[in-house]
Amino acid sequence: MKFDLGSIMYILENASSLEDLEKARLSMFGKDGSITEAINSLRFLSGKDKAEQGKELNKVKTAVLDAIAQKKRTLEEEALNRALLSETIDMTAPYKQSNEGREHPITHVIEEVTEIFSSFGFSVQDGPEIETSFYNFDALCVPHHHPSRSDQDTFYFDSGALLRTQTSSVQIRSMQKLGVPLRIIAPGRVYRPDYDNTHSPMFHQIEGLAVGYGVTMAHLKWCLEEFCRRFFDRTMKLRFRASFFPFTEPSMEVDVPCRRVSGKIEVGMEGDWLELLGCGMVHPDVFKNCGIQDDKITGFAFGMGVERLAMVKYGIGDLRDFFCNDQRFLKYYGFSISDKAH
Ligand code: DAH
C-alpha cells in the first residue's frame, strides 16, 4: 500500500482545531485507520516485500506521528493565546456608574454645616447617645415636671439612663471638658418617640455653643445670618422670633423667608416664613451647673435639625425616606463623591 505523504501533511497542516486534528489522527491510527490497516496487512506479505514495505510504512508512521504532535502543540498554543487575549482588560471601556456608592444627604448636610462653622472657628465635639438625666435635662435647667421628660417623650432604660433627646447635652459635656472660652458644634443622633412624615424616632441635630467674654446676641445673629447665606447660597433677612427654652435667656426661634410655589418651598424668596432652628443666650444657671462661676462669661447657643435642613435645601418631602435605604431615593438625593469638590 502506497501513502501520499504530501496530501496527508496537507490535511494535518490545515486542521483548524484540536478536534479536527484528532479526527485526522483516528482516520489513520484508529482501529480501522488507513495506516493501522496497512500495518496489519503486512502479515500477508513475506520475505523481501515484507521487509521493504515494513520499512516504508515505519517511515510514514513516524513522519505522520511527528507532524501530528507538532500540529497539536501549535493548536494548543493558539488556543491559549486566544484565551489570554479575550481576558485582557480594556482600560478605555466605559465603567458602570450604577454601582457607585453615594453619600447620604444627611451625611452631606452635616459636612456642609461643619465646614461653614469650622471657618468661624468652631470645633466639632461629640457626646454619648445613651445619656443621663443630668446631661440631657437637669444641667440644662429642664424642670422635673417638664413634659419632655415624661416617658411619652423620652426613651428610658430601666437603669434610669435615656437615649438623648437633644444634642444640647454636648453643651454641658464640652464646657466641663474644655472649660471656657470655647466655640463648638456637636452634630449627632437624637431620639424621641414620634413617627410621621416630619418625625422619625431617630433623627439628627447640630448643636452650637460659643462662650467667652463679651459674647452678645449680635454675634449670634451674625453667625446665623452668615451661616444661612452660605448654606442656602443667598443673602436673606432672618426673623428672630421670641420663644422659650429652659437653658437660654432670652430664647428665640429663627425663621427664614420662603415662598411656597405649588407645594414646593423656595427658601430666600420673600412672602412667607419657615422655622429653621432654636437659639438663645446661655442661661447663667447653665454655667453654674457646669461649675463656671465667672459672672463676666456669656455665650450663645443654637440647635438645628439636620433632616429639616436637608428637606428644605434639597426639596425632600417625607422625612422617613431618609432612613428606608431605598436605592432609588439614595440614587436621586445622594451625592456623588465627585460632588465633594463643590
Ligand atoms: N435642644 C432644642 C430642641 O431639641 C433646640 C435648641 C434650642 C438648642 C435652643 C439650643 C438652643 O442650643 O439655644 O428643640
Topology order in helix (H) and strand (E) letters: HHHHHEEHEHEEHEEEEHEHH
* Count of individual beta strands: 10
The figure for the number of domains is: 2
| Broad CATH class of the largest domain | Alpha Beta
On the 0-100 scale, what is the average pLDDT? 93
What features would you describe in this structure?
With 342 residues, this protein is α+β, with helices and mostly antiparallel strands. It has two domains: 5-86; 106-341, BirA Bifunctional Protein, domain 2. 39% of the residues lie in helices and 21% in strands. It has eleven helices and ten strands. The strands form two sheets. Strands 1, 4, 5, 6, 7, 8, 9 and 10 form an eight-stranded mixed sheet that branches. A two-stranded antiparallel ribbon has the order 2-3. It is rod-shaped and about 130 Å long. The relative contact order is 0.11. The model has no long low-confidence stretch (mean pLDDT 93). Bound molecules: 3,4-dihydroxyphenylalanine (DAH). Residues 166, 168, 207, 245, 248, 278-280, 301-303 line the site of 3,4-dihydroxyphenylalanine. 3,4-dihydroxyphenylalanine binds at residues 166, 168, 207, 245, 248, 278-280, 301-303. Tetramer of two alpha and two beta subunits. Mg(2+) binds at residue 249. It comes from Candidatus Hydrogenosomobacter endosymbioticus.
